Structure formats: structure tokens, C-alpha cells
Amino acid sequence: MYKKIFKRTILLLTLFIIYIYILVINYIPDQITIFEGENISLKTFFGITLNSEDEVLSVSADTGEKTINKIGSEKLSVNFFDKLFIKDIDVSVLPRTTVIPVGNIAGLKLYTSGVLVVGMSEIEGEDSKIYKPYENTGIEEGDTIIKINDNEINTTDELIEKINMSKGEKVEIEYIHDEETKECSITPVKTSAEEYKLGLWVRDSAAGVGTVSFYEPDTHIFGALGHGITDIDTGDLLNIAKGEFVTAKILDIKKGEDGNPGKIQGTVEEQETIGEISKNTEFGIYGKIKNISSLNIDTSKEMEVALRDEIQLGKATILCSLDNQTVGEYEIEITKINKENNYNNKSMEIKVTDEKLIERTGGIIQGMSGSPIIQNGKFIGAITHVLVNSSTEGYAIFGDLMLKQSKEVER
User: Fold this and answer.
1) Whole-angstrom Cα distance, residue 339 to residue 361?
2) What's the CA gap between 58 and 37, in Å, rounded?
């Protein structure tokens, strides 16, 4: 009996270890982007190794950390105990970059690819009966309608026009659900107002204000927010077709407190165009600046983007604008660093220590997302979130993560 239990235990333990290895291997990306001389931070497991055929990979004798000191495209192989090949990783090695930390408040106007479904409602037909034309079609909140009867749909007005043109005849709809393109048919319902409805609430744009993190003079690319813009109803990251980057006017500052985050209230109405937005990602908003003078950037403040190993616990400063004239510099403390984080925008934990900033805002408030962080004369990252239960504490993203995202704008 004990032998059976022992064998079963060994079998279960073996299967568990195999499962762990499968999870780790699946977690290793097929592509990564690093800066020249940056340590390659990948979560691996005992026996899983990285190798290169042309010996571009440098390994520290003291720490075992791996770096590539050659700009360009390289290929690394993932192996099991240096013997069994598992997969290849394509590595893009970028040169060290300099940027200008900004800290100004700006406005963001985003226009979606297609129209986003944000809700559903019953329709009262002209016969006073209640209909749900969307029922059993597969369309859900968060899906994006991109075509009606093979005609591309980019705005809410275009959708309304095509549905009314149907005169109640069945329409073919193409939509995106969980990154997969699907099709369905819906018969619009005629209302007493002689309009045709699908029972879907949709949106084609979003707007807001946030802080510009950096400007790269060589490419005219900017990064802002440090996190993406999500739809207020669905919580999904907006899939944008284009966007406008505009000046913003601060109207008021609502001070935050523990359990009740504050915010910068601003407007983007009748403001000046700064540039174009081309990417809305989990790691921030990116695009190109066309009108540099509108941001009042101090070009003398150009500095290197720090590698993760150069970031230290302790004192740093942030840049942010709390009025319509100037950008202030305020003290913070970096309390935790997650050097292996390549997966979300919570790379560091920070705490505001500047008494003037705490007196004015209570700490970190909405609208300060994107505020650049500077340490030892280098751009190290940007604020992304405030902790709801502690208004002086929050998260920040590594500067290198934002720069790597911005490089996609150039391609």
C-alpha cells in the first residue's frame, strides 16, 4: 500500500514539475527588444538556458547576467541544460537613447477602428412590441463593428446611416470579438419615429487629459500616460485608427485622499493641435509631434534613458504641471523595483514625499499619469497609477519599456 502511495506521489510530483516547465516555456516571448548593454530579464527555471550561435551574448562571471553589446537583430536559442533545443527568440538591440522629459498636461482625442459596442437595450417597434434584434447573434459588449454589408464602418454616424438605408431588411455585420473577426446577420427594427435600430449602444471616440512623459528630438516621437486609454463602459483597451494630440487647459485640481483619488480637471475644447497619436497600448500613448512650440519643451534638458540596473531605491523627482504656465519638479521615493517586469506598467512602486505637492494634490491624482521620473540625471520612467487606499503611493513604468513601445511608431 505504501509503495502505491509513494509511486503515485512521485508520479504527481513529476507531472507537476513538467507542468511548471510548460508554463515557464510558454511565458518566454518569441520576440524581445532591449537596449545595447541592457541585461536580458527573462523569467526562466532550473535547467533552461539562453545561448547564441555567433557568441554575441555576454555573461557576467560574477552575477550570471546576460547582455548583448551589438546593435541590430540577433537570435537567441532557449535550451534545456544546453542540450535540448526548445525555441528561438528574435532580439532587437537598440542603441542607447536620449529624450527630453516633459511633464506638461495635454489633451488626447482617440478615434476607434470601427465602432465599439458599449451596451445593449430592448427596442420598442412601431407595433409597440419589444424586440432584441441583437439576441443570439454572438455580438457582445466590447466587440467592434467594422463592416455592414461589406461597407467599412468607422463612425457612429456611418453605422446609423447604413442601418436606416436597410429599410428593415437583414444586414450582414462583420465584427471583432477577442481579436477574432466574426460575422452575423441582424434584422433592424423600425420604431414609431420611423428609424431603424439594432438595439446596440456604440461609441467611436474618446477624449481626456494626461501628462506627456518624454519627447525624442531625433524622431519627434512622444510618449504619454504610461498606461493605455480604456473604454469607460467596457474597460477594454481602445483599438484606435487615429488620434489627435492637443493642448489642454487646466480648469481645476481636485485634491486626493486615502480611499478617494483626486484628479486634474481639464478641457481639450478649442485647443491647439500638437501632433498625431498612432498607438494606444498598455504601456502608454505614442505618436509624433508636429508643433513642438505648443508644448514649451526645454530642449536643454535632454538626457539618457536609464537602464534598469541603473535605477536605485530611494530619492528621485517627478515633473508635472498643476497650472497652465509651468512644470514643477517634486521629490518622490522609489520603494520597490521589479527588474524582470516586461509584462505590465507596474515596474516600480513609488511614494510622494514632497510636502508642497502633497499639500496641493494629496499625492498622486488622475491626470498625473505619465509624469516623468528622473534619478541621477537620467529618465527612468513615468507614473502610471495611484493606490486607492494611499493617495501618496502608486506605481510607475520603466522608461525603457516606454521607449521600446515608441520605436514601433517609426516602423
Assistant:
1) 29
2) 9
Catalytic residues: 227, 354, 369
Nearest by Cα to 120 from 135, 104, 109, 101: 135
Instruction: List the beta strands (DSSP E) in 95-153.
Output: 98-101, 105-120, 123-124, 130-131, 144-148, 151-152
Task: Indicate if the alpha-carbon torsion angle 306, 307, 310, 311 is positive or negative.
Answer: positive
Q: How far is CA 186 from the centre of its chain?
A: 34
Residue 117 included in any domain: no
- Comparing 128 with 75, the larger pLDDT belongs to 128
CATH of the domain at 187: 2.30.42.10
Q: Where in the sequence is the domain holding 265, given as residue range(s)?
A: 98-109+205-410
User: Cα(385)–Cα(230) distance, rounded to whole angstroms?
Assistant: 14
Same domain, 396 and 335: yes
CATH code of the domain containing 56 = 2.60.40.1380
The beta-strand segments (E) located in 255-312 are 263-267, 273-281, 284-289, 303-304
Query: The whole model's pTM is what?
Result: 0.79
Quick one: pLDDT at residue 410?
A: 55
Say if residue 341 is exposed, middle or buried (CB neighbours under 10 Å; 0-12, 13-18, 19+). middle
In this predicted model, what pLDDT tens digit does every residue of 252-266 receive, in sequence order?
889 888 888 888 888
Confidence of residue 409 (pLDDT cuts 50, 70, 90): low
Label residue 91 by pLDDT band (50, 70, 90). confident
Q: What's the whole-number average pLDDT of the chain?
A: 85
Domain membership of residue 284 (yes or no) is yes
Residue with the larger pLDDT of the pair 321 and 17:
321
Residue 43 is predicted with a pLDDT of: 66
Query: 3-state class of 156 per DSSP?
Result: helix
E-only strand ranges, 290-401: 303-304, 314-320, 328-337, 348-352, 372-375, 378-387, 390-398
- Burial of 154-186, coded b for 16+ CB within 10 Å and e otherwise, reads bbbebbbebbeebeeeebebbbbeeeeeeeeeb
CB 122 within 8 A of CB 130: yes
